[in-house]
Design goal:
The protein is an alpha/beta fold. It has one domain. The protein is built from 6 helices and 7 strands; from the N terminus they run E-H-E-H-E-H-E-H-E-H-E-E-H. A 4-stranded parallel sheet has the order 2-1-3-4, sandwiched between helices. Strands 5-6-7 form a 3-stranded antiparallel sheet, with no helix packed on it. Helix 1 crosses helix 4. The longest helix is centred in the middle third of the chain and has 12 residues. The protein is globular and about 55 Å long.
Length: 162
């Protein structure tokens, strides 16, 4: 788990694409998402922050003049993720993975081990030395078995990690 700024485009995902947003974040890609976001707010964020809109909403496409819009045709997140990676020429790289908070998209930062002692289980604290924290929500991250499990899950769905 390293902290590298995400390369390439920034995204904002509509309210139908929460799992896609989460997996883009796993890959270290900047993917704004809020389940309660209205279409007008989605458009405003896209314009203000120069983000690509990822959407499954056909009406949004018909009603907007925004050019940076990618329509997601697939129903399942692995297919959606593959479509985005292919369209934008992106790839998952281990040195960028898990560099964003999965909850709020913040860029996580290294945290001194002693600063999180009482925020994780004792077993986790004893068996890991490198911890990271989201500066927005203060969620703590570490490179546990879930990292390799996630990589295996991605590769099972045809998403290669280099």
């Amino acid at each position: 788990m390293q902290n590298h700024l995400s390369p390439g485009p920034k995204f904002v995902c509509d309210d139908h694409l929460g799992k896609l947003a989460r997996y883009l974040r796993v890959g270290g890609f900047d993917a704004a998402f809020d389940r309660e976001m209205t279409n007008s707010r989605l458009l405003q964020i896209a314009l203000d922050e120069e983000r690509w809109i990822l959407t499954r909403d056909r009406r949004l496409i018909e009603r907007t003049l925004v050019r940076n819009l990618f329509f997601i045709t697939h129903d399942h997140w692995p297919d959606q993720l593959n479509a985005v990676l292919t369209h934008f020429g992106l790839e998952f790289r281990k040195d960028r993975m898990f560099s964003r908070c999965l909850e709020d998209n913040g860029t996580i930062e290294p945290a001194p081990k002693e600063a999180i002692e009482f925020r994780v289980f004792p077993f986790t604290y004893q068996h890991h030395d490198d911890f990271y924290i989201c500066p927005i929500c203060r969620r703590v991250y570490w490179s546990g078995t879930h990292v390799e499990a996630t990589i295996r899950r991605l590769e099972r769905f045809g998403i290669m990690v280099s």
